[in-house]
Amino acid sequence: MTRASRGGWRTATVAGVRRPVARGVQLRLDVADRVDHLPGQHYVVRLTAPDGYTAQRSYSVASAPSDPLLELFVERLDDGEVSGYLADVVEPGDELEVRGPIGGWFAWDGVSPALLVGGGSGVVPLVAMVRHAVDTGRTDLLRVAAAGRTRAGLPYADELVSAGAVLALSGEATGVRPASRLTAADLVPLWEPGQTAFVCGSTAFVGAATRLLTDDLGMPASAVRVEQFGPSG
Amino acid sequence: MHPHRHDGEGTTTMAGPTRGFLGRARTPRDARLPPGQYDTGSDWPVLTAEPTPRISPETWSITVDGQVETPTTWSWDEVHALPAAEYRGDIHCVTTWSKFDTHFAGVSVDSLLEVARPTEEGRFVMATAKTGYTTNLPLDDVRGGKAWLVWEFDGRPLSLEHGGPVRLLVPHLYFWKSAKWVTRLTLMKRDQQGFWERNGYHDRGDPWLQQRYQGD
Fold first, then answer.
1. CB-CB: which of B24, B95, B132 is closest to A222?
2. C-alpha–C-alpha distance, residues A43 and A59, integer Å
3. Which of A52, A56, A228 has the CB atom closest to B96's CB atom?
4. Domain boundaries along the sequence of chain A
5. What's the predicted TM-score (pTM) here?
6. What is the ipTM of this complex?
């Protein structure tokens, strides 16, 4: 298993900035001498004010290990000290301090069957898994459910749908699926014996999705790996 | 303010300021806030790596074993018969939030160690939770009035999502050391890594030294 945080802080040069959804920014970073990440791992970004004050936050990686750049997706939180800066101020050419990759638990090994369940910006680490599967020709191993309010507000929605993801939208109907939160009926067609489930999103989403997997689908709790977003600005 | 300490590997000096970043308007920094942390106020974020288990007090127990003279298991009722103890103070999560003025009630880990009696060779502890979650600690970090088993938060039963019915509380270290749903403390001769520690987090986790990741 890859060890986290090899090498401490590195300088990342911002190569690209996109705002694909209203409340988020996609940062493409050129990080010299970085260690390849596993799909699902995260990086820490540290900002320093002129008086030396620093603030750091963790963001999931969306890019595949094979991508020459590191792609982070940052949801812009109301009053978000770091996310507000990254979403509103950062421009190509800026330098940021980053550290990673971090976390070996919420990481797909690339060879085992997995059920990926993401809510909102919780889809980001799952995007890295999907991209890695595309790279290695192993998309057969992954089943994906992505939940959000609207398709337009869900990051990477088009890419995930192209990869076969089921969308569970609470704010609009999708084909014959009425507007509703994620249900067991969304997950049943994706479930197969032997899968490890990766569930990522807000604490409330992760709790609800995990209960669907363990209580309704009967997945063993030991097969479910979760990652929550705390309110960390 | 706590003296500034080197972050990261200790060799990388800080890059200059980040262009255009000023940060939140800063009041004088609260001396209770370790470096790199912010005050989460009344929130108490929930962060776990596994589904929340269902554990009833009737089936819960705590075992102290490994390098001890008398390996011992206490039931819910038995652990409540030990001298009551409480913690009033702050907690710090590695995800950078700190929470001030918390109040937990339970028993001191010292009360368990008095019964189980560590051998001279027992120097480290592995805390294990019902879920299989583990975290390692130096024995000296869980004795001498520094660690508790707690089942009450602010006068109410500790909720399942926050580790109830009983969690370990080691508030002077980052909060992943305070294992939720704890059921076992195993004393060890040599340090072994627990769950987050194997995944790159620090073996000790002192928030004042910013011991977040391996190598800090």
1. B132
2. 5
3. A56
4. 10-102, 114-229
5. 0.81
6. 0.78
